[in-house]
């Protein structure tokens, strides 16, 4: 199977791309990675160099697209790349790419519960327009979200988009044997057993998963996506209540045994989210999408 996959050059979308493509290569898939947004740094290039069955391409408009410029030219570049690489399908990790005119089925991944986050002047200037998101949701043969909460929030914000049962949830995953850079521990230079993150609109959070794999107790903002993934394996606080967060952190620092027990619970939960399981779910989605496309073409 040949896949054309768009991605951003950094952050969780890049980590997701690397983890997924590594596993897809092991399953015999060939992937062309098209970086359509952001600057590809040295670390990212090293990540890509370690992958097998991969052709890495960087859009000349990647930096511009992140600033909300040259979207039309960026789509034309992607369409030419699709013609050149001859994929079986387009795996779009962004809405703009999912509106490209390509002769193959499209799988769109909605990475951000930001689809349900309050829009700001800055986000509107950099992100895709409402119309582009609706067009992407209606164009894609499959719409994938990292959590059920993220999917529900997206569909609620764009009710005019008729997805007609084409949506599904595939939890992102990580290869525990190749953990991607766990963040530096908090604390006074010594390794902390606690990881805190009160982000309000992060649908998955590879930093949380990495910390959990490291056996660190999780203190997370109480938002639907985080509850869905980590309920029973993390302590939840109101993301806007700094005092509540401080009290929980102080309690865990004062009681290392509780921190260790909660870290063990987090680590046990983290093994549910494996890169292999994620890749197999995507391959299943690809195959179903290609079968449906074949039937549609035959008609």
Topology of helices and strands:
Layout lengths: L1 E7 L2 H16 L3 E8 L4 H8 L4 E5 L3 H5 L4 H15 L3 E4 L13 E4 L11 H6 L3 H10 L2 E4 L2 H10 L9 E3 L24 E4 L8 H8 L3 E5 L2 H7 L4 E3 L4 H13 L1 H15 L4 H24 L1
Parallel strand pairs: 1-2, 1-4, 2-3, 4-5, 5-6, 6-7, 8-9, 9-10
Helix pairs in contact: 1-12, 8-11
User: How many strands appear in the DSSP assignment?
Assistant: 10
pLDDT < 50 runs, ≥5 residues = 114-126, 180-191
Distance between the termini: 23 Å
Structural class: alpha/beta
The chain-level mean pLDDT equals 87
Oligomer: single chain
Q: How many separate helices?
A: 12
Largest sheet: 7 strands, parallel
Strand fraction equals 15-25%
Shape: globular
Helix content: 40-55%
Description:
This protein has 12 helices and 10 strands. The chain is an alpha/beta fold and 299 residues long. Strand 9 (217-221), helix 9 (224-230) and strand 10 (235-237) form a beta-alpha-beta unit. It is globular. The chain starts with a strand and ends with a helix.
Features:
three-stranded parallel beta sheet; 299 residues; 12 helices; seven-stranded parallel beta sheet; alpha/beta; 10 strands
